Design the sequence.
């Protein structure tokens, strides 16, 4: 019984350790090029790639200084740093600068 | 042999057969931390966690008065020690706790918020066996005071603001590469040049 318990514990801990190193949080830097239907926007990354970013109700919207922003403050031309959720599908946070005038 | 003896023997044999089948299935398919705990495991684990709390702590209320300074200290402490697994917002969806077995709970929900101050304190100080929750206490008054302040922040989690989350991100443990990335992002948003790579795959905090 003790061996079974020890084996179970080892397997659980080994699995936890292995999976703790999986998964990445993708971050994109670039400039907003188009606003879509309220949940999406397009951006051009600073190395020239076009991306469509999907946002969610839980997405955090922030100014560059870390203060809360509103989604409606995002405009074409804003510089953004987008951190994706671990599922890679929706943005966890969008940090924005004021657009160039 | 009486009828009662026969029933007892039948029950014992049935239990042995079921146990052997369960053991064989376990040895055949192994364990995975991807699974969700069964209802029985949850019940046993919660009961064990409840019993693990010393009785004199169970009904204790937080002895550390709640002030803005205490909450600020607790927020920084949580960002540095807890967020790697629980996430800065305590929801357990952004830290390595999503890969644990059992998964880290959403601490903004009633299952955590309804625990007493003393129960939360005991969990922080002593940890929870057979989970990823370590015991952070070392028996000193300083350690206890720190854990009580964390209890205040756990109570605050349902109201945590995006500004607080942003501040905590600056306080989360970081590798030199993550520090560099954070500085590059700030410089880019301030109008500076972007780094050569505009896309980063940032590993979870280790």
Sequence:
């Amino acid at each position: 019984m003790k061996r079974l318990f020890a084996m179970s514990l080892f397997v659980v801990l080994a699995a936890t350790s292995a999976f703790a190193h999986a998964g990445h949080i993708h971050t994109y830097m670039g400039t907003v090029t188009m606003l879509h239907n309220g949940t999406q926007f397009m951006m051009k990354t600073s190395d020239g790639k076009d991306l469509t970013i999907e946002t969610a109700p839980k997405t955090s919207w922030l100014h560059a200084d870390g203060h809360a922003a509103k989604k409606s403050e995002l405009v074409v031309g804003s510089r953004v740093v987008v951190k994706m959720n671990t599922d890679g599908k929706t943005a966890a946070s969008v940090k924005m600068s004021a657009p160039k005038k | 042999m009486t009828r009662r003896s026969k029933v007892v023997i039948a029950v014992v044999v049935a239990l042995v057969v079921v146990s052997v089948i369960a053991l064989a299935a376990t040895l055949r398919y192994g364990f995975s931390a991807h699974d969700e705990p069964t209802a029985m495991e949850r019940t046993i684990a919660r009961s064990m966690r409840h019993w693990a709390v010393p009785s004199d702590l169970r009904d204790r209320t937080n002895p550390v008065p709640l002030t803005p300074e205490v909450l600020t200290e607790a927020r920084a402490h949580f960002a540095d020690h807890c967020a790697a697994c629980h996430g800065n917002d305590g929801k357990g969806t952004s830290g390595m706790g999503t890969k644990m077995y059992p998964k880290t709970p959403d601490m903004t929900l009633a299952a955590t918020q309804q625990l007493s101050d003393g129960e939360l304190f005991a969990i922080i100080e002593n940890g929870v066996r057979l989970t990823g929750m370590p015991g952070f206490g070392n028996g000193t008054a300083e350690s206890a005071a720190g854990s009580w302040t964390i209890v205040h922040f756990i109570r605050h989690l349902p109201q945590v603001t995006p500004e607080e989350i942003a501040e905590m991100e600056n306080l989360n443990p970081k590798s030199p590469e993550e520090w560099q990335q954070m500085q590059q992002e700030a410089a880019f948003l301030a109008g500076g040049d972007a780094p050569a790579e505009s896309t980063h795959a940032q590993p979870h905090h280790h």
